[in-house]
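Repro:
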Amino acid sequence: MTTALTPASVADAAQGTVTRGRVARRALRVLGGVLIRVGPALVAVLLWQWAATAEQSPYFPPPFDTAARVRELWFGASLADGVLTGRFRDDAGPSLLRALGGWALGGAVGVVVGLVAGQWPRAAGYVDPPVTFLRSLPKPAVVPVFLLVFGAGDLMRVGLIAFGCTWPVLLNTMQGVRSVDPVQRETARAFHVPTRVQLVRVVVPAALPKTAAGLRITLSLSLILMVLSEWLLADSGLGHFLITAQRSFDILDMWAAIALLGIVGYLLNLLFVATERRLLRWHRHLSARG
């Protein structure tokens, strides 16, 4: 028995074909984007694997061996235990607390001082010289000072991380405050808007994108300073694990620690970017409108 074709059925079939075509094109675009992002890294890893396997150097183990060691040390627990091993909590847990604590403290100081210095030129005259001097100091050079002042505990490590993270956030916030549209400032003054309201409603929103850029830069810097601080008189953390492996010539563990640091930094950056996009969605809409 033959089914008669009606205009409605033909239209439905055509619509279904168009929808499937759109889905296929969207899937291809997503796949292409993933390949563009992951492809070069994958090729580099495969080349490294081939070269390391052929060379058999004790100092450059194949990346697959490093990945297996990372899994064994820190991700070898069962699903019931949350995949993460006790070693992960002992090594990465203290490091993350120190890095994020110093990052948050340095970011808070940078935002407050940057707002004050950017909003009031007289304050900037007092802030600029010491900021220029302190941010020019190499961070390893101030480690002995922090050791003398705070001792060899976590306070020294968090303080060192905060010290290094303050300056990019401070400078970006100052630049963001100074780049506020003069028309907005004059409008607020014309309507006698209180200074506190101007800061909250005009200055801070305008400075947020540049402040977020400074915070993103210092997120990776906090991990660098965390490793540096844990090389000295520490008994826990990824930096301590890394330097201990290097001193004992345990090359595979050393590379495993480097790989884990890269994974942690990448995931923290992804989390920050996702949060930034959500919080600053309004800024992208305004920029798109012109």
